[in-house]
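Cross-posting from the modeling subforum.

Setting up a comparison between two proteins and wanted a second pair of eyes on the formatting. Protein 1 (sequence, then structure tokens):
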Amino acid sequence: MPWLLLALLTAFCLALYNFFIKLASDQLPAAVGAVVLQLVAAGLGAAWLLKLKLQGQPLPVTGKGLLLATLAGLGVGLAEILTFVVFSRGVPSSVGTPVIVGGSVLLTAVLGLVVARETLTLPQGLGLLLIVGGIVLLARGH
């Protein structure tokens, strides 16, 4: 499957993730929602890992890889809790999700530039500026 199709499928899954957090946020406490979400995600990941293992695929693991995955898990766990909290305060998903996702795209790009020494083309830089403008407009309207 081409990377762009995979990326769009990922975006669809993230949309479901954010939308269902929004719907659940006034039905249960943020901590409960985050734990349920993580348990389901861990179960799905474990099933995928088991499938790969049963297929005999090599699964090379490094200490650095485990550390980085742990840090990513810390980030997503905190993001999940905070997303529940944001939506429990009545923020519409049409505002909260673009601010959260757009902000994460922007900050990830900055980390890529500063920490990973990546580069941006002029159109990519303009795209990031448009994200900033979109976040400002969305935040001002609510």
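Protein 2 (same layout):
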Amino acid sequence: MVLLLVTFFSLSLRAQPHVDTLRMALPEAEKMFLDSNLQLLAQRYNIDANKALVMQARLWPNPNFSVGHTLYSGALHKWLPTGANDETTFGLSQTILLAGKRNKQIQIAAANVKLTEYQFFDLLRTLKYTLRTDFYHIYYLKESSRVYAAEIKALQQVSEAFSQQEGKGYISEKEVIRIKAQLYSFQSEYSDLINQINDVESELRLIVRVRPSFFIDPVIDSAALSKLDPNAYPLTTLIDSAYKNRTDLQIAQTNTKINDLQYRYQKSLAVPDLSLSLGYDEAGSFLTGYYGVGASIDLPVFNRNQGNIKSAKLMTASTEATQRSVQSTVEENVSTALQKAYAQQRLSQTVDPKFFNDFSRLTQEVLNNYQKRNISILDFLDFYDSYKQNTLQLNSVQFNRISAFEDINYYTGTNFFN
């Protein structure tokens, strides 16, 4: 029997996936994110790709070279005749872009580089905000899970003790059912909480690019977090920083600039380009060995690029409206985030810092008193439920406070609170 048990235990261990716990502080997580995030890497490639388009826009149009020769002479009844009876022509032409088309193309390409750079920093800002909020969210969720684990363990001890005394008349069946019902309720809530932790951890692992076999255990500096104060910076400073550093606003401004450049470029396309040519005709002209120069240009009679010009103008108006919309939200975002931080700060200051220690100490005392039958089952279960609810609420208060400071960082585009 012992041999069978050992064999079963070893096989069960092999069947379980290998899981490691990765303890890390926030600076370590941010460094991993900057070094290995694939979304940032892809956006960096976009920047380099648009820089290559600037190089392409700087290039001049290629010259055109043509050559012609007699294929068949009817007089000589000869294919590809040579000598005095053949005809050979050469031509060389070059297109000259007028109305500053080349410079406008270069300006559009350069503006697109700036746009992709701002998109990179906006992606960085968004992913960093997600990383930091997920990091703190996991920490406080795990703090709540420890309460569930401790209470479930205590209720399991009571339930096992009752099971051993079942049928002896010491414990009523109703009391046993109440204990087991509370235990099953806590286990169900604990399972839901673990699933929530796993979902947030999955998102965080993707951001910092950690293997799925790792569980992240956040390490925070509680003393530093407790010193965060929304009064540290006035609203005007936060708003000024937002206008200067909000990448979504810079993207909107750059889109307006690009569309304005596109409008000017479309207007320049209404001006035809000039083509200069140099030609040689061996014997097909009134002169033998004819050399000539020429110039050609389209006459803008029917197509003056009217539709594209109108479309570009309307697109410019559209992006200007979008830019004004983004600008109008900046101040509102920052003001709302600051008011939220004030409210969460006031709420967290009402919490007695001794609360957790007192409750943790009382938990074991209540369990001992219940086992000694000094308190009723109603008092026992009511205390455990109250302890759980208050702990969850306090962890939620702490997380919401930190989240409010992260909102300010996100909406201002600056790490005022770290």
